Amino acid sequence: MTRVLVVDDEPQIVRALVINLRARGYEVDAAHDGASALELAAARHPDVVLLDLGLPDMDGTQVIRGLRGWTKIPVIVLSARHASDEKVEALDAGADDYVTKPFGMDELLARLRAAVRRGAPVGSEPDEAVVSTDTFTVDLVAKRVQREGADVRLTPTEWHLLEVLVRNAGRLVSQKQLLQEVWGPAYGTETNYLRVYMAQLRRKLEADPANPRYFITEPGMGYRFEQRLPGVGSGTLRS
């Protein structure tokens, strides 16, 4: 399911958006100020953000810049500001679209769908987003992991860590990048987090966690996911 983060300090607008989005099958989180929005984005990893510019603690453009420091998720601005220079400022800060209040729900939903399509990672179609090893499979669309035919229960943080590594299969992902993508832009040096959660992933997915085949540590640098199939040196996303 597509997860939407709604950021607005007007309760009526938030309520209307939440009701309409959930009725159409979206998962929705809501924040009423910029600080909460940045925290929720880091914790929940939405697929798209609907953002009001006039927030009580900071301007919406600051929220956009905060998001752009670590993620490329689509941001659609919802604002009563009509001046072209304010629209340009928001777009230059990294917004993907700008909808002026009041707006029609049908138009907003169409723009939301378009933003999600543009923001979808390459290879995210259901028949192309299953990564297989000889021990477990990862379905990036369904957000499901199976080991030897049985579902593996992962915490949200474990899943986000796994997802980043799998999407960068074969490539070294630095400690800082992992911390900022999984825990948020305020994190960059808490390497103990990575050690703890990597150990948990290995216990759940590796046949021999003490001698991992798939989740490789590059000491002092980061981690790498090596996809290995029987008789294959390194795998690719299968269709």
UniProtKB/TrEMBL annotation:
PROSITE patterns named in the record: OMPR_PHOB, RESPONSE_REGULATORY
All copies of domain Response regulatory, residue ranges: 3-116
The keyword DNA-binding belongs to this UniProt entry's keyword annotation: yes
4-aspartylphosphate: residues bearing it: D52
Cited CDD domains: REC_OmpR_KdpE-like (cd17620), trans_reg_C (cd00383)
Signal peptide as annotated in the record: none
UniProt DNA-binding residue ranges: 128-227
InterPro entries: CheY-like_superfamily, OmpR/PhoB-type_DNA-bd, Sig_transdc_resp-reg_receiver, WalR-like, WH-like_DNA-bd_sf
Domain OmpR/PhoB-type: 128-227
Alphabetic keyword roster: DNA-binding, Phosphoprotein
Stated name of the protein: Response regulator
The species this protein was found in: Streptacidiphilus alkalitolerans
